[in-house]
Amino acid sequence: MNDYEKDNGGVVNSQQLLHDISALSHLFRESASIETLLNKAVEMVARRTQSAVCSIYLYNPDKQELTLHATEGLNPESVGRVHLKLGQGLTGLALQEMRPVCEADAGRHPGYKFFPGIYEERYNAFLAVPIARGMSKMGVLVLQRDSRQCYEESDITALETVASQLANIIENAQFLLGRHEPVAEKAKSVPAGLKFIKGKVAAEGFTYAPAMVLDKRRSLSLLLHQDSGKAHTLEDFRIAVTHTERQLEKLQEQVEHKLSDAASLIFAAHLMILKDQDFTGKIARRIEGGVGAPTAIAAVASDYMRSFLASQNAYMQEKANDIEDLAVRLVDNLLSRGEETSVHRDHVIITRGLFPSDLLKLSSEGASAIVLVGGGVTSHIAILARSLAMPMVMVDAFELLNVPDGTPVLVDAEIGNVFVDPDDHVLERFMVQQRARLTLDDQKRLMKPVTQTADGARVHLMANINLLSDLKVARELSCDGIGLYRTEFPFIVRTTFPTEAEQYVIYRKLVDSMPGKPVTFRTLDAGGDKILSYYHDIKEQNPAMGMRSIRFSLQNRAIFVEHIRAILRAGAGADLHIMFPMISSIDEFHEAREVVRESLGQLEKQGIEHHAKPKLGMMVELPAVVDLIEDFAREVDFFSIGTNDLIQFMLAVDRTNESVSDLYLPHHPSVLRVLNRIARVALENGRGLSICGDMAHQTQYIPFLLGIGVKAFSVDPIYLLRTQQAIAATSLTDAEALARAMLAKSRIRDLEALLKNQTRAD
Ligand code: PEP
Ligand code: MG
């Protein structure tokens, strides 16, 4: 006779339950077998809740499936055999909706799923509560008993408390049980339901190619399973090392050729590691001791990675990626015995973490597109991807990491869609679209030499340049100059600060490419989400508001002076504009201007050729400057509005955080009114005014911007034609009327309606 039968009218003693659960966690620490532990848990919960049945289902997020792992009261043979998809049955429903499901007569519920042979049909009263850690789903705790005593509110509360206590145990159990699963068996087929994923565009483009998953957490373990059974000699390993070295040198050359400003020695770390006797020596010793070569490589690489990953320093963590990359390369070369392999070429790379140097490497190796899982993309990764013409979509679907390598994937980074193994119908639709896409030649043909509104007002259309490779499109489309050169890119992708001489060479190429046209250098905007991995080794709690941008430059004056000197020297004879990012006060602007004056003095004294009178301006990116804008207008030659940061800081919405992206609203009434105020003050004071944030190329906002008097737009080169066409389609008179109407609205929904109407009118 069990406790239920002994006492089927009692009340749940939740205090007692809690007490036992804490005893259970104690037991967990000493328990050798997870199965025993889970069994003890269900037995105890069943007893305390006077239930005939208590079961624990564990969730496998890769398969999106629940499996019965322990039960008191059901047929013990059903353990490990009962599987439920997320949402399937009442148990699956509880987890899918992350809420308790309580039924007096479970069998009558339309979602009830009957499993023959587990003997649950006798128990109609049903209560399931999800087991979760934060938002992550871990499993379900289920109670059942006969219908004479259905569960009540107090039972639900008690069981929820138990479930939350169990979460910690389950998390560990899942981890350990997961280790028992053979790694190589994972990811053999496309996870069910994974055909279409809606993501967010980071860099536009379109690709259809086989997938390759780069997942740090699994690739080394996969390597360990790659031993082909063939015995590799020490000589084989040495040949693989030499071959890898040659491959890397060639790649390095290609990158330098393609991206002279950014390349630096991006494969330097790999080459250094290969030359490290300790690294190769350790592998060789293992091979000599009889360990298979791929296993020896993976084992030594893991040791190195672990020590790098243990560091708090982002630069060191980046090195762990290099080690991993190198280990994969070495094993590939070992197994293919020197055939030319570029594993990433013409593949859609699915990955969860990406450094700028990774992106450069993937681009130089010919990867076709990137699907970044789990967000965490920093704005410079997205910007860099655009400059590299690498389509990139960010998605939240971690299951994508289980897509088998080689599965065809269609990445539509025009709107952020990812199709896994798309059917012919989807493919055909996209092929038609692809054929309609404009080539650079088409764009050249369509681009007008002069940008103006429908009623003939002249507008200056300039380019945002991140990498020198962006210049090609900018030049071919003959824009009106460079409205924003993000100087931080050569800093971000390198492994040390570039010297004044190196900077000069890059900047001079930029200036030479735009003869007679304005060139605007924004001084170093490092920090925040644009980290210099070799410098920002102190983890900041809140880097967006930390030691970044102009603050970083003013704090590192020697670096700033070299930077300004390089700009002034490169700008000799050009229409040179210099602007400071993230200015928050007049004092800060003065301090930055002082560095320019000091550098000018030095160059003058040294007799070095330079630009003696550059125009000095500021980015408007912080709400703090809005109320000082009239005062700033007396100090600066020009304003450039950085809407990306201005919106982020005005609305307190992180521009890189996928989960709040719906709140990032350029058409928030306060943003619109601030833009209007800045434009009015700049125009009244005869100061230069341009807009260089993403809002400048978002065509729905262009009429408003024209309407408040913005006559200079700076956009990524790929958006030049689109922006020109949107301007040409707008009459200034209409734009002014629209801007007046928008500025009169105080509700977001009214503004959205106005924007919608305007689109319809187009
Ligand atoms: C901006 O903030 O709008 C801007 C142009 O700068 P970045 O995107 O480089 O921060
Ligand atoms: Mg900015």
Largest sheet: 8 strands, mixed
Helix content: 40-55%
Number of strands: 22
Rg over CA atoms, rounded to whole Å, is 31 Å
Rounded mean pLDDT score: 84
Bound ligands, named by name, code or SMILES? phosphoenolpyruvate, magnesium ion
Structural class: alpha/beta
Approximate shape: globular
Secondary structure: elements and pairs:
Layout: H1 3-6, H2 14-30, H3 34-48, E1 53-60, E2 65-72, E3 83-85, H4 89-96, E4 101-103, E5 125-133, E6 136-145, H5 153-180, E7 196-198, E8 200-203, E9 206-214, H6 216-224, H7 234-258, H8 268-275, H9 277-288, H10 293-309, H11 314-336, E10 348-351, H12 356-364, E11 369-373, H13 379-387, E12 392-395, E13 408-412, E14 417-420, H14 424-436, H15 440-446, E15 460-465, H16 471-476, E16 482-486, H17 488-492, H18 500-512, E17 518-522, H19 549-555, H20 557-570, E18 575-580, H21 586-606, E19 615-620, H22 629-633, E20 638-641, H23 643-651, H24 669-684, E21 688-691, H25 702-707, E22 712-715, H26 720-728, H27 732-743, H28 748-761
Parallel strand pairs: 9-10, 10-11, 11-12, 15-16, 15-22, 16-17, 17-18, 18-19, 19-20, 20-21
Antiparallel strand pairs: 1-2, 1-6, 2-3, 4-5, 5-6, 7-14, 8-12, 9-13, 13-14
Helix pairs in contact: 2-3, 2-5, 6-10, 6-11, 7-8, 7-11, 8-11, 9-10, 10-11, 18-20, 20-21
The structure holds phosphoenolpyruvate (PEP) and magnesium ion.
Describe this structure in words.
The chain is an alpha/beta fold and 762 residues long. The strands form 3 sheets. Strands 7-14-13-9-10-11-12-8 form an 8-stranded mixed sheet. Mean pLDDT is 84; it is low at 1-12 and 178-188. The structure holds phosphoenolpyruvate and magnesium ion (MG). Phosphoenolpyruvate (PEP) binds next to strand 16 and helix 23.
